[in-house]
Amino acid sequence: MSRSLQRLRLLPRNICVAILVSYRAVISPLYGDVCRYYPSCSSYTLQAIQQHGVVRGIWLGARRILRCHPWAAGGVDDIPEPHPRLATTRAGFVLAHKEQ
Amino acid sequence: MDIFALLMWPIKWVIEAILVGFHTLVTALGGDPGSGLTWVLSIVGLVLVIRSAMIPLTVRQIVSSRKSLEIQPEIQRIQKKYKGKKDQFSREAMQRETMEAYRKAGTNPFASCLPLLIQMPIFLGLVQVLTDANNRMPGVGLLTERLATLFSESTLFGVVPLHMTMADGFAEGSLPVIGVAILLTLIMVVTQFYTQLQIMTKNQTPAMKESPMYKQQRILLYIIPVFLLVSAWLFPLGTMFYWLVSNIYTLVQQLIIINKLPTPGSEAALAREARLARKRQRMGLPPIDEATAAEEPSVELKTQRQQPRAKRPKSRRED
């Protein structure tokens, strides 16, 4: 039950992943290597959506594309590490271990 | 969907302003405001304005790719280090190191993603503007209802309405529409194919040709025509003219780049050097000194530590 719920929760990001994967397979090769960063903008956005979810992922990806202009220095630029949520008690106090 | 419309609003406004501007200009020069030719010329003007606005970006990119010649030794060192290692992790590590080297040197041979992405909403905006005009709806700015009506009624040579798609042509059995749509598609296929082929065969370094991206590019070369045929089926002739002129612009620009400013290390760069050398010879100048073309210092890479040798016992020493 919770497994299918989990799948449902991840459905939006998997839809975005499907779009990005097909972009990377079909449209991206038309341009060749253009990105000034590693990982490339589309790969960065893909990872960001996978790890941070649709809203934050698209936000991160959009900001990355705005950074990828001809005057940018480029270089290695990985997605911010997603921080796992801390567990809380029923009353709302934060516990010292990660949410299960 | 409303956020989307809000985002497209400024793009559509600018497109309309440029289109109407050129329409006024062509009309002032004696064009018939209702003829298809006037609208096609306006679309050509739109392409020229948009693409010319991007020239600084292109130039900037080429200049920085020239500058990246200076750190070629460093890049070659990295390539040598990972030579023959084709697994995913080595490739990733190699790309990381290469990009970091470019960043440190303050140069980068890649074009960057933003200019490419900007062009997509522009095309989308144009499709929307033309569709609205086609339905005789006033646009968001300067494209008034009167102009929209003019556009929707305009025909090329009196028989080819610009708002029709290839699908419409077949639906109405209009041979001129089908003919023009097929002709446009053919020209687009040829220009796109030729541009892509030029970039791939001439303006890429051997290292670029080794990457898995290159194989994908090769396959896509043969899928593009199918794409274009589908889009010709779906998009009105007006947008196809935009695409076509844009393609030709890219082709010419690419030919100039390949001739004058090829990617360092590519076939085109070698051809250019050979051309310049022949020119020097013809003019009776001595060839560029071999010594100045500094030879690549071969980098000795120690992938394995030198193993220490045990001392031999005195009895087995040779001296």
Automatic annotation (TrEMBL), chain A:
Domain of life: Bacteria
Main location: membrane
Gene from which the chain derives: yidD
Family matches, as Pfam families: YidD
Membrane topology recorded in Swiss-Prot or TrEMBL: Peripheral membrane protein
Keywords of this entry: Cell membrane, Membrane
Organism of provenance: Agrococcus sediminis
One cellular component term from this protein's GO annotations in UniProt: plasma membrane
Protein name in the entry: Putative membrane protein insertion efficiency factor
Cited InterPro entries: Membr_insert_effic_factor_YidD (IPR002696)
UniProt xrefs under NCBIfam families: membrane protein insertion efficiency factor YidD (TIGR00278)
Keyword NAD: no
Family: Belongs to the UPF0161 family.
From TrEMBL, chain B:
Region (Disordered): 283-319
Official protein name in the record: Membrane protein insertase YidC
Predominant cellular place of this UniProt entry's protein: membrane
Biased composition (Basic residues): 308-319
Subcellular location: Cell membrane; Membrane
Location of the Membrane insertase YidC/Oxa/ALB C-terminal domain: 39-258
GO BP term (any one): protein insertion into membrane
Subunit structure: Interacts with the Sec translocase complex via SecD. Specifically interacts with transmembrane segments of nascent integral membrane proteins during membrane integration.
Keyword set includes Signal: no
Family membership: Belongs to the OXA1/ALB3/YidC family. Type 1 subfamily.
GO annotations of cellular component type: plasma membrane
Membrane topology field: Multi-pass membrane protein
Alphabetical UniProt keywords: Cell membrane, Chaperone, Membrane, Protein transport, Transmembrane, Transmembrane helix, Transport
Transport is among the record's keywords: yes
GO molecular function list: membrane insertase activity
PANTHER family per record: CYTOCHROME C OXIDASE ASSEMBLY PROTEIN COX18, MITOCHONDRIAL, OXA1
One Pfam family of this chain: 60KD_IMP
Transmembrane segments annotated in the record for this chain: 12-31, 37-59, 109-130, 174-194, 219-245
Function: Required for the insertion and/or proper folding and/or complex formation of integral membrane proteins into the membrane. Involved in integration of membrane proteins that insert both dependently and independently of the Sec translocase complex, as well as at least some lipoproteins. Aids folding of multispanning membrane proteins.
Coiled-coil segments on the chain, per record: none
